[in-house]
Design brief:
Length: 131
């Protein structure tokens, strides 16, 4: 019999301000990842970038805790970075143009050779309600 693979169990770990200064803020979030399977789960490294009107607004890096052994809980760290100047540029752009086009791009470094380096982008156009 083959074991039925189960999804990892996720829970929120510690959250803290990693950097706070006049240029921006970095938040560090820990995600507890428990492997309920009887086999090792390879864990990807994922970076994403969210922007509006071509200006990057929020960036995040999901660090790879390595392979997660059976019955073990590992901590994956997420760093979310926001630069205040980028937020002001986005607000100015949206107010000036009257439209907002959001863009989410993902870069996943999967530990599977055939799937390594997958890049994806999602564009969501929208307009402001007052124009």
């Amino acid at each position: 019999m083959l074991p039925l693979p189960q999804l990892p169990k996720l829970s929120l770990g510690q959250m803290r301000v990693a950097r706070l200064d006049l240029s921006g803020i970095d938040l560090a979030c820990g995600i507890n990842v428990e492997n309920p399977n009887k086999f090792v789960i390879p864990f990807p490294e994922i970076n994403w970038d969210y922007g509006v009107n071509g200006v990057s607004m929020v960036k995040s890096k999901f660090s790879n805790p390595g392979d997660i052994n059976p019955g073990v809980t590992e901590v994956a760290n997420i760093i979310v970075s926001v630069a205040y100047a980028d937020i002001l540029r986005v607000v100015g752009s949206v107010l000036n143009m009257g439209t907002a086009q959001s863009n989410l791009s993902l870069d996943a470094g999967l530990p599977i050779a055939a799937l390594d380096g997958i890049k994806s982008s999602l564009n969501v156009p929208g307009t402001l309600p007052w124009r």
